[in-house]
Design goal:
The protein has 129 residues and is an alpha+beta fold. The chain contains five helices and five strands; from the N terminus they run E-H-E-E-H-H-E-E-H-H. The protein has one domain. A three-stranded antiparallel beta sheet has the order 1-4-5. It has a two-stranded antiparallel sheet with strand order 2-3.
Length: 129
């Protein structure tokens, strides 16, 4: 089965699990397992980035934008995420002469464009500081 991103989750929520209520009002705590990072998962991430024109830097990925697939989540090092993002950026901008540094958001000279789930995690974290 071809991997597909179900949603984006924060690292904090993945570590502690999160609680939802089902149709009967019962609370369930969810824990995701880590999926294997293979070519199929890499391609699915690149396709999702390109399809929605997401720009996500390595540190943002690790804290707020972890893709969760049907078989688990994918947490990458900032270096490997930068390589994935560079691949997506080349597809989105085939005539670009320079590729931004997607390692850390503060080093990147273009603005990040996050999935709505990741944007919500980022803003939630800022409201508590």
């Amino acid at each position: 089965m071809k991997p597909k991103i179900k949603y984006w989750q924060s690292n904090e929520n993945l570590e502690k699990g999160w609680v939802t209520k089902d149709a009967c009002g019962l609370s369930w705590q969810h824990f995701e397992k880590e999926a294997e990072f293979d070519e199929l998962h890499r391609d699915a991430i690149v396709q999702e980035l390109v399809k929605h024109k997401y720009i996500i830097c390595g540190d943002t990925h690790q804290y707020y934008a972890v893709p969760v697939f049907q078989d688990g989540y994918i947490m990458l090092s900032m270096r490997v995420w930068r390589e994935v993002m560079e691949e997506a950026y080349r597809i989105m901008n085939p005539k670009a002469e320079e590729i931004p540094n997607f390692y850390v958001a503060s080093w990147c000279d273009i603005e990040e464009v996050l999935p709505p789930d990741a944007e919500a995690h980022l803003w939630a974290s800022r409201s508590y500081s």
